[in-house]
Structure formats: C-alpha cells, structure tokens
Amino acid sequence: MSTYELYAVVMAGGSGTRFWPASRRNLPKQFLPISGSKAMIRDTVDRLKGLVPMERILVVTGAVHAPLVAKHLRKLPPENVLCEPVGRNTTPCVAWAAVEIARRAPHSVQVVLPSDHVIRPAAGFRKTLAAAAEEAADSGALLTLGVQPSFASTGYGYIERGELLHTRPGAQICGVTRFVEKPDRERAEQFLHSGRFLWNAGIFVWSTPSILAALREHAASTLSGIEEIVRAGDNATLTRVWPGLPAVAIDVAVMEKARSVRVVPIEFEWSDVGSWTALPDVHPADAHAHVVAGGAELVAQDSSHCIAYGPKGEIIALLGVRDLVVVHSGKVTLVIPRERAQDVRWLVAELERRDPRHI
Predict the structure, then answer these.
(1) Are residues 267 and 341 in the same domain?
(2) Which end of the chain has fewer CB within 10 Å, C or N?
(3) Does residue 224 contact residue 66 with C-beta atoms inside 8 Å?
C-alpha cells in the first residue's frame, strides 16, 4: 500500500443555464441551494470531510465567481482558488490543478469532481474514493466512477465496463472497454439492456504523476500552456495564454486515449441534477406530488405534480394546475410544462439575443 497525500479538485466553472432563471452567469447552479439548504458547492466540499482536509482542496472556477467561492467556502485558503479568465472546458482545468498540486506534493493522489452533483450517503462516497485512491496510487491507472443506468438516457456519456480486475474495500475495480459519447435513443436502449454499460459520472481519481504523464502524451499543448502560466505566476501571462488553450473535455482529450484506465461502479445515490425535472430525485414530494426547493413556501389548491423553486421568504401559489415547473428568481418568473424543461436553453438563447442582462 502506497503512502501519499490525497488532494481534491472541485471543478466549479459551469454556467448551469438549464436552471435559468435561478442560475445566471453571475450566480450559476453550483452556488445555489438547488439540492438542499446550502449551496451545492458547499455540499460538495462538506462530503469530503474526514477524507481530504480543507488545505488540500483546490477549487477551479471562473474569475468572476471567486467572491462566491469565498462566500460559501470561508475556510478554503485563498491560494487554493484557481480563477479561469474564460471557460475552456475541463482539460485546462484538470491540467492547471495537476501542475499546481505537483508543485506542492509531487507524489500525491487527486480526486477530481464537479461542484454540482448530489451524492448520498456521503460516507459511502468517501469509502469509494478512498478505495479508488489506493488503486490509483498502487497501479498508476486513471480511474473514473461509473453509475449503473436506471433508464436509457441520451444525455450522458457511457463507459463499457471490462472485466473485474479485483476488489478493494468499498469498490470493484474494472477494466474499461471503451467510452461512448451521448448516444441516440436506440443505442441507449441497447446499452441499458446489455448490462455492460455505465453512465460516466465525471468523477476521476489518479496520481499526480500519472495524470501529468497522460496530459503530456495526449494534451501536450494544453499542459505546456499551463506550465508557462504557472512558471510565470502572473495574471498577464494567464490572460494571454489561457484563452488560446484547446476547449476540450478531459474525457475526450485524455480518458478515451489513455492506455491504463479503470472504472469503479458506484453503489451510492448519484444525480447530476441536470434540469428542473431532476428535483424530484433529490427532494421529497408532498401529498400532491409537488416538489419545492430554494426555501420558498408553496400554497397550492386543486393542483398536483408541480415543481416550484423560489428564494426563502417568498410564496409560490398554484391553483388548478398540474405538471408545471414554476421558478421565481429576481425579476424573472418561469412557467413551463415539466415535459419541456430541457427547452429552457431556447429561452436563454432568445434572451441572450434580446437582453443579455437577464442571463
């Protein structure tokens, strides 16, 4: 068993437009109480307690969101916040964190996770991460966590699981046959019925030397740009180099190409809370199948199966309606049928054209 320091990298650069109007450019989903009473990024960091100390947690976020990180993570050292000038997907984010962690602890292991997922129970999550970290340290493999599909989703990437390599306390370690990007409905049905495919949870575990070696082999231009930024250590170099880095997901840039990749099927509850209609998966419904989040009070009569979101201290009133999503945030109120929740992005695009102040 290897001896190493365990670090965590929290990716908090997303915009969360599918949760508009609550989620905006200046207040994206990860800083909202979508899944409970605390901001999602705070829940994410709290889940790591007892596994990764706060001084070894790094948050990568947009520069404009640094004050929100400080607000919700008051004990996080300021030097642990890496501020992206613009969004460039997850490969530059992973590379920057890896180079920074290598500077502090060259023989460490890293857990890399999104800031806006719901995972329960936290103890089971930590046990799985600890087992994956041991595997990463001992084998040098790049590990990803996979979710057993519950339906034929066309919105997730998939991982075809290979043979069971071995088990560790809290985890099965399996090979990876291939990664598949978001499939069409027919292929998703085939994946579901085969029993060999897992949803890609976007949570990774690897040793610092292993991810740096993989980046150097498969994303060399990104890594060299990041190394230039870290060497210079000034904002001028960051703002000059960063926008030119390839905007590619780490799954595509590295995981699909690397030779030693393994998957850990998870056994805890997981949701990426991808749209308003995901709230019933993470919040209990009342007697009329309504789900309320954000702190608002719901008053409903002759209504059922609605999803309501609003800030604490406000009231959402429903009368004679069903199967709606009703969201009130600031000066904007959204009302849509539940079945059209994914189409919020079209409203966002139209408002972007008309008046970007509302986005």
Answers:
(1) no
(2) N
(3) no
1 domain residue, yes or no: no
**Of 290, 312, 311, 285, whose CA–CA distance to 300 is shortest?**
290
Structural domain of 308: 276-358
Task: Examine the fold and report which residue of 271, 302, 327 is the final residue of a domain before the chain moves on.
Answer: 271
Task: Give CA separation, 285 vs 43, 255, 271, 280, 327, in Å.
Answer: 21, 38, 17, 7, 17
Q: What is the mean pLDDT of the chain?
A: 95
Give CA–CA dist 202/123, Å, rounded.
19
Copy the structure tokens of residue 241: 């180099």
Provide the token pair at 106: 């060259």
- For residues 172 and 131, is the Cβ–Cβ distance under 8 A? no
Tally of CA atoms within 13 A in the half-sphere of 173 that contains its CB? 22
CA atoms of 88 and 228, how far apart (whole Å): 17
pLDDT of residue 3: 85
Do 231 and 322 have their domain in common?
A: no
In a domain, 169, yes or no: yes
Owner of token pair 């450019």: 25
Query: How confident is the model at residue 1, as a pLDDT?
Result: 55
> In the chain, which stretches have pLDDT less than 70?
1-2
Looking at residue 334, its amino acid is L
pLDDT at position 305 is: 98
Tokens, residue 312: 């604490």
